[in-house]
Specification:
Mean pLDDT: 77
Low-confidence stretches: 455-473
Order of helices and strands: HHHEEEEEHHHHEHEEHEEHEEH
Strand order of the largest sheet: 2-1-5-4-3
Number of strands: 12
Radius of gyration: 48 Å
Helix content: 40-55%
């Protein structure tokens, strides 16, 4: 079974196809080499016999016979042919018995079959010959055996067999190795995926230091699994958190109504009971509204309405809204703007995010403290910073504060539903910005935004960062 899967694997089939293509290429290459060599040899022979017949024709008739005899006598390889015939076609000298049939006596070289006096070869050789009628009426024929092309063909064929077969086998071996390697990696991935499906959410795909497509895909999938694990862990307790946070105000409303029904004897007492019940119901509705709002933002339903937004104007408006609230708590609230900044986004959502940060800062800063809003920019990025003199967020809680309904033990008695920073994180992620939670003591939360020119490019790779950098304080 494994052998069949190995042979039918895409990697092996691709290697087989590459090997076949390589073999065809080599065959074509050797055929081209053979054709060029054959053409070169024939052309060289044609030039040689043309030169020879011109030389012989220019000799005096009394020297021509001895020159042809000497020419043939010097041919140790037996590849030269010559014949001198009178006007009647009778041989005078040479190793050609008669004038070849079909040979044109115009000095053009052509392939012919010669009638030789002595046949030295078992087969008819390939001969290129040229004929010419001389001034005295004699016919001179010069030829040359170009049968070397058969030898070249044999040499090329042997070289092809000796070079092609090992190369083809090497391609197959490389394909087999790659196929086995790919199958092992896929099998390992299958096993780990099965464990993930079985519920082992901490399992991850194997990664290595290589920068091949498989390794990059594994890193992307592992990043996705990290996000999924975080979401599943967050959702695992969200139902209990919702039930717990809704039960408290609903229980208070029910108890208030029950006591009012039993003990209220005047209209004022009944109104007081009703007010307490309405407050509990309003708190429950606030939780439900915040959840719906958070879901809407996380589903990216508002990205179509993005436009140019002036961050500096938003900071000034938030400061104007919360300045009276801060004064009631004896908290100084100020804003410092380095320059006017335009970003691409939803103005209402950005206002809501910054307002939530300021609301938290005012809420958790003790009387006599200070809250400061800052806006700085370097042309490509803008940094919105909310700093307060409150207790801040400890290092152990920087990830937890972004979860829904999270409330630290020291803030349990502070009014709220624990969705403020979750809402801010969702808005920041929707815009492709970055949320930075600074270290304690003192609170510091930053939003790193991309200015109008770089917003679209940065939005593709946005994610929330949590870090502590004391130098930014």
């Amino acid at each position: 079974m494994h052998q069949i899967q190995f042979i039918r694997s895409n990697t092996f089939l691709w290697a087989l196809a590459v090997a076949a293509a390589f073999a065809l290429f080599v065959v074509g290459l050797f055929a081209f080499i053979y054709w060029k060599l054959d053409d070169y040899l024939i052309t060289r022979s044609d030039r040689m016999i043309t030169t020879q017949i011109n030389f012989m024709a220019d000799l005096p008739s009394d020297r021509r016979v001895s020159a042809i005899s000497d020419h043939l006598a010097q041919d140790s390889r037996g590849v030269q042919y010559a014949g001198l015939f009178d006007a009647d076609g009778t041989r005078i000298v040479g190793n050609i018995d008669r004038v070849p049939r079909g040979l044109h006596l115009d000095g053009a070289v052509q392939g012919v079959r010669l009638d030789l006096i002595e046949k030295l070869a078992a087969h008819d050789p390939i001969i290129r010959a040229v004929g010419r009628r001389l001034d005295d009426g004699d016919v001179l024929v010069m030829g040359r055996n170009v049968d070397e092309t058969r030898e070249i063909s044999s040499v090329v064929g042997q070289a092809l067999a000796l070079g092609l077969l090992p190369a083809f086998c090497l391609c197959l071996l490389a394909g087999a190795w790659l196929s086995v390697r790919a199958q092992r990696r896929v099998e390992e991935v299958n096993q780990r995926v099965q464990r993930i499906v079985a519920g082992e959410l901490r399992e991850r795909l194997p990664e290595d230091s290589a920068d091949d497509p498989f390794a990059r895909l594994a890193r992307i999938v592992n990043g996705m699994l990290d996000e999924m694990e975080a979401m599943i862990n967050a959702l695992a307790g969200v139902g209990n958190d919702i039930a717990h946070d809704l039960r408290t105000p609903l229980t208070r409303a029910r108890l208030a109504l029950e006591r009012g029904r039993t003990h209220a004897v005047t209209l004022e007492q009944l109104q007081e009971v009703t007010d307490r019940a309405i407050a509990g119901i309003d708190q429950s509705l606030a939780i439900i509204t915040a959840l719906l709002r958070l879901t809407e933002i996380e589903n990216n339903r508002r990205t179509a309405g993005f436009d140019d937004v002036a961050l500096d104007e938003i900071l000034r408006e938030v400061c104007d809204v919360y300045e009276p609230i801060a004064e009631d708590k004896d908290i100084g609230l100020g804003v410092v703007i380095d320059r006017n900044v335009q970003v691409l986004g939803d103005r209402d959502l950005l206002f809501e995010a910054i307002a939530n940060l300021v609301d938290n800062a005012v809420k958790f800063t003790p009387p006599g403290g200070r809250v400061k809003l800052e806006l700085t920019s370097n042309g490509e990025t803008a940094l919105v910073r909310v700093i307060d003199s409150g207790p801040g967020i400890s290092e152990q809680e920087r990830e937890a504060v972004l979860r829904r309904f999270y409330r630290s033990d020291k803030m349990r008695n502070t009014p709220g539903v624990g969705l403020g920073l979750s809402l801010v994180a969702a808005i920041v992620k929707l815009h492709g910005f970055r949320l930075i939670v600074g270290p304690a003591p003192g609170g510091r939360i930053e939003i790193l935004a991309w200015t109008r020119g770089t917003a679209r490019a940065a939005a593709c790779g946005a994610r929330i960062l949590l870090h502590a950098n004391a130098n930014q304080m």
